[in-house]
Write a structure and sequence with these properties.
This protein has 364 residues and is an alpha/beta fold. It has 12 helices and 13 strands.
């Protein structure tokens, strides 16, 4: 379960400000609260703490050198979507407040801080976290039991699965656990989905490549009999965030290195008769050393033609190969190469070769 599933669980709050004086003031004002307080003087230090600790609320200054609060908010939203973020600034404007809310901030506070108001906002946010957690448990969002693992929090959710951060109890290693969402299937489709899931997971478990997320094990949740897979937890930034920041525009050597690694990864996957089927920047993590790693390579894609077609349409149309749109029975490795070509174009230019919000407009 997550750390926020009951009213006695500790709440961890991370404050980020490049002013040590501000952090000391916050500590003096909040040290007697029941919350566990953490502090960072930069966005980079904050991300390091987020990788190592379970944080529920992040309160960050906006104006910080090199790594401002808006950029930190974007990073947290992408990498730690369960964390509630508040921004504070000494230069509050309506436009900045609107931008903060658009990016996912739950509150926008003006400096000098009104500490009574800060406490109230934190208490409101804690109530929201616990209410949401209660609702998720009631709705069956969180797995009830996976032997040998302690679920920490949800880190991502897609059309066909939910991914949780967890600790493997035998060695306290962080892992990612993906749960197949079967509650949206008809009764006669559930067993077929499980068979396909287990068959593909068994093949994927054999893939051992430095640029492919490693699958450790798979099975069924104890209480709900929902299929799950246990994967390597990768620390990195999604490629789509780098693209949004024009990180690789005209940086041909860097793009070549990334493409070479991804092609090697796809070559290994295709040896095992697997087609990734969902190559896109959001499924490529750039690790701290600059190397890429493919994630989410189709393990939870479902077998029926109706669901397969639905999954393609609900995915990211801009990266889908034409044969995937047509739902032909002979989708193979070449479909992945088409999608990777789109990714390469976007990395180098900052734009996609085809514009459109859906398959129809793209086809035109």
């Amino acid at each position: 379960m997550t750390a926020t599933t009951n009213h006695t669980s500790p709440i961890n709050i991370l404050f980020v400000d490049d002013s040590s004086e501000m952090l000391h003031a916050i500590h003096r004002q909040l040290r007697k609260t029941p919350w566990t307080l953490h502090f960072a003087t930069s966005g980079t230090e904050a991300l390091d703490i987020l990788q190592k600790k379970t944080i529920h609320i992040l309160v960050s200054d906006v104006r910080m050198p090199n790594f401002d609060g808006f950029r930190l908010l974007e990073e947290v939203h992408l990498r730690f979507p369960h964390i509630r973020v508040m921004l504070m600034t000494g230069l509050p404007t309506l436009d900045a407040a609107v931008e903060a809310i658009k990016l996912g901030a739950v509150h926008y506070l003006a400096k000098p801080l009104d500490f009574d108001k800060l406490r109230t906002k934190i208490e409101q946010t804690i109530d929201e976290i616990r209410n949401a957690s209660q609702h998720q448990q009631t709705a069956g969002t969180f797995p009830l039991a996976i032997a040998g693992f302690r679920i920490l929090n949800k880190i991502a959710e897609g059309a066909m699965g939910i991914i949780f951060l967890a600790l493997r109890q035998q060695d306290d290693r962080k892992v990612a656990i993906k749960i197949l969402k079967i509650n949206q299937l008809a009764a006669d489709e559930v067993e077929e989905a499980r068979i396909r899931f287990e068959r593909e997971a068994a093949v994927a478990q054999k893939i051992d490549h430095p640029n492919v997320v490693k699958l450790y094990s798979y099975g069924l949740c104890k209480d709900e009999h929902i299929p799950f897979i246990v994967m390597e937890y990768v620390e990195g930034t999604p490629l789509n965030l780098h693209i949004a920041q024009k990180r690789y525009v005209n940086d041909i050597p860097a793009v070549i290195n990334i493409l070479r690694a991804l092609l090697s990864a796809l070559s290994e996957i295709h040896k095992h008769i697997l087609c990734h089927r969902d190559i896109k920047p959001a499924n490529i993590l750039i690790c701290p050393d600059g190397s890429p790693k493919l994630i989410d390579f189709g393990i939870a894609k479902l077998p029926t033609s109706r669901l397969t077609n639905h999954d393609c349409i609900m995915g990211t149309p801009a990266y889908i190969a034409p044969e995937c749109v047509l739902d032909t029975p002979h989708i193979d490795a070449r479909s992945d190469l088409f999608s990777l070509g789109i990714v390469a174009y976007e990395m180098l230019t900052g734009t996609r070769p085809f514009s459109g919000d859906n398959l129809v407009s793209l086809a035109r």
